[in-house]
Design brief:
With 115 residues, the protein is mainly alpha-helical. The chain has 2 domains: 63 residues, Multidrug-efflux Transporter Regulator, Chain: A, Domain 2 (Orthogonal Bundle); 36 residues. It is built from 6 helices and 2 strands, in the order ααββαααα. Strands 1-2 form a two-stranded antiparallel ribbon. The mean pLDDT is 89.
Amino acid sequence: MSTYTVSQAAAQTGWSPRMLRYLESTGLVVPARSAAGYRRYEPQELALLRGLAELRQGFDVELDDIAFVVRLRRDARLRAAVEHWLAGTAVPAEGASEADWIEWEQRKHERLLAA
């Protein structure tokens, strides 16, 4: 199976080598390492990188948003804490008015200050 260096993976996917290193540090796309310690991207990582770019563009989300979702999936305690917090909030429905969102934000900040 062919593998790609960080520079080759960058050229194939449109991400910069520096960004690929960042993505690895966040745990979003982690390539295998060669015996000498070099990153070796396989076709599945290249597909993940392309999909990540499409996800960001298609849904206008940032990498830190996606990284947080990954943390939620991996960390049961964090997931439980967020679920507990969400259970105490009534997030306005899609299409809610600006006033509903302002009220929700105000309640959220009051809870944070009380904690």
